């Protein structure tokens, strides 16, 4: 996950890989999100074509439905409900053409058939956005 170009240096990537080795984790391959730009561009364009996203001020925005709720199924907290009316439209592609983490992580997880995600509860507020993109 290298959408944050300031923090995603070769050194930081190697530190992550070294930590995984230390933990005894093995992998077949790893992906750089920046290398999957064409995949992300295609999905973003599909969202625009379906009316789920729009362009404004040079950025591409995901259009959050104004009605209903988005439910997050959390193994520890149970079901957590977010009222869509309380959520705001959010950027999926910056005006410089780069894609944001919340968008590309969903695209990549879906493409790789990831079914469960382990994360800190500090990311709970990102989860309804990611579910809506799916």
From TrEMBL:
<dbReference type="InterPro" id="IPR049940">
    <property type="entry name" value="GluQ/Sye"/>
</dbReference>
<dbReference type="GO" id="GO:0005829">
    <property type="term" value="C:cytosol"/>
</dbReference>
<keyword id="KW-0030">Aminoacyl-tRNA synthetase</keyword>
<protein>
    <recommendedName>
        <fullName>Glutamyl/glutaminyl-tRNA synthetase class Ib catalytic domain-containing protein</fullName>
    </recommendedName>
</protein>
<dbReference type="GO" id="GO:0005524">
    <property type="term" value="F:ATP binding"/>
</dbReference>
<dbReference type="Pfam" id="PF00749">
    <property type="entry name" value="tRNA-synt_1c"/>
</dbReference>
<dbReference type="InterPro" id="IPR020058">
    <property type="entry name" value="Glu/Gln-tRNA-synth_Ib_cat-dom"/>
</dbReference>
<dbReference type="GO" id="GO:0004818">
    <property type="term" value="F:glutamate-tRNA ligase activity"/>
</dbReference>
<keyword id="KW-0436">Ligase</keyword>
<keyword id="KW-0067">ATP-binding</keyword>
<dbReference type="InterPro" id="IPR014729">
    <property type="entry name" value="Rossmann-like_a/b/a_fold"/>
</dbReference>
<feature type="domain" description="Glutamyl/glutaminyl-tRNA synthetase class Ib catalytic">
    <location>
        <begin position="62"/>
        <end position="134"/>
    </location>
</feature>
<feature type="domain" description="Glutamyl/glutaminyl-tRNA synthetase class Ib catalytic">
    <location>
        <begin position="1"/>
        <end position="55"/>
    </location>
</feature>
<keyword id="KW-0547">Nucleotide-binding</keyword>
<dbReference type="GO" id="GO:0006424">
    <property type="term" value="P:glutamyl-tRNA aminoacylation"/>
</dbReference>
